[in-house]
């Protein structure tokens, strides 16, 4: 079944669906080389993506290249730990976004990998890299204060490393108020989400589904509270 047909089938079956992406939309394929990311943005718009974050390959066309392609996307990019204030990207991403599905408020923010040494300096200009753990904690607290019932982090840090480099697993352990981390960068294929305990002992789900659109990941949340009847919130990446 083609990706579009699969997503549409899920949307027909489930009332409340989010479609999310954890970055590296520009993968250096012949399509990117020819169209500069415009095709990818148009296709993601056609697929109905709700939110995405930026990966290191999304700087392949430079700052102006991302901005030109970004014009064809009708969904927000959340980048919380990149300060784009003195760059062309300033104003073209959001710190976080809040979505409403089935009476629930869902907060989504994004954190990315350090660009120094990974991306040529001239590709990311004066972008300032901020500590992802500190930023993630701050954004999660802010989203909780804004009444979000579910808080999702789109991460392009990578699933795990042998050294003590910040990864999705470390992020999960050293933060709180985050319910789900959807990751990218290390192209890790997980058969099911990894369950981690955050710094106060609550469970955080960490998921990653490989790369190049080979898999479509699906996570179903059933949320019950005094304020809501039973709701199904489906997250597809």
Would you mind describing this structure in some detail?
A hairpin with a 5-residue loop joins β9 and β10 (203-207). The strands form three sheets. A six-stranded mixed β-sheet has the order 4-5-7-8-10-9. Strands 2-1-12-11 form a four-stranded mixed β-sheet, covered by helices on one side. A two-stranded antiparallel ribbon has the order 3-6. With 237 residues, the chain is α/β, with parallel strands linked by helices. The model is unreliable at 226-237 (pLDDT under 50). It is 25% helix and 24% strand. The chain has a single domain (3-236), classed as Purple Acid Phosphatase, chain A, domain 2, CATH 3.60.21. It has seven helices and twelve strands.
Order of neighbouring strands in the sheet with most strands? 4-5-7-8-10-9
Low-pLDDT ranges: 226-237
**Shape descriptor:** globular
Number of domains: 1
User: What count of helical segments does DSSP give?
Assistant: 7
- Based on secondary structure, the structural category is alpha/beta
CATH topology: Purple Acid Phosphatase, chain A, domain 2
CATH class: Alpha Beta
Notable traits:
single chain, 237 residues, alpha/beta, Purple Acid Phosphatase, chain A, domain 2, six-stranded mixed β-sheet, four-stranded mixed β-sheet, 7 helices, 25% helix, disordered C terminus
Topology:
Blueprint: H1 3-13, E1 17-21, H2 30-35, H3 38-47, E2 51-52, H4 62-70, E3 82-83, E4 96-101, E5 104-112, H5 121-124, E6 128-129, H6 132-145, E7 150-156, H7 168-173, E8 180-183, E9 194-197, E10 203-207, E11 218-223, E12 231-236
Parallel strand pairs: 1-2, 1-12, 5-7, 7-8, 8-10
Antiparallel strand pairs: 3-6, 4-5, 9-10, 11-12
């Amino acid at each position: 079944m083609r990706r579009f047909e699969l997503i549409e089938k899920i949307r027909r079956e489930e009332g409340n669906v989010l479609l999310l992406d954890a970055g590296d939309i520009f993968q250096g394929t012949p399509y990117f080389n020819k169209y500069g990311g415009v095709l990818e943005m148009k296709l993601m718009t056609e697929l109905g993506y709700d939110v995405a974050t930026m990966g290191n390959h999304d700087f392949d066309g430079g700052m102006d290249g991302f901005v030109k392609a970004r014009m064809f996307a009708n969904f927000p990019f959340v980048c919380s730990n990149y300060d784009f204030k003195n760059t062309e990207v300033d104003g073209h991403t959001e710190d976080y976004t809040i979505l409403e599905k089935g009476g629930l408020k869902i907060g989504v923010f994004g954190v990315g990998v350090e660009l120094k040494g990974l991306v040529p300096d001239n590709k990311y200009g004066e972008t300032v890299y901020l500590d992802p753990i500190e930023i993630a904690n701050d954004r999660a607290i802010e989203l909780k204060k804004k009444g979000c019932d579910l808080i999702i982090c789109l991460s392009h840090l990578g699933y795990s490393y042998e050294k003590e480099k910040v990864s999705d697993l470390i992020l999960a352990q050293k933060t709180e108020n985050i319910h789900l981390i959807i990751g990218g960068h290390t192209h890790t294929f997980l058969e099911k989400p990894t369950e981690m305990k955050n710094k106060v002992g609550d469970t955080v789900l960490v998921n990653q589904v490989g790369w190049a659109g080979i898999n479509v990941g699906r996570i179903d949340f059933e949320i019950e509270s005094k304020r809501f009847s039973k709701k199904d919130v489906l997250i597809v990446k």
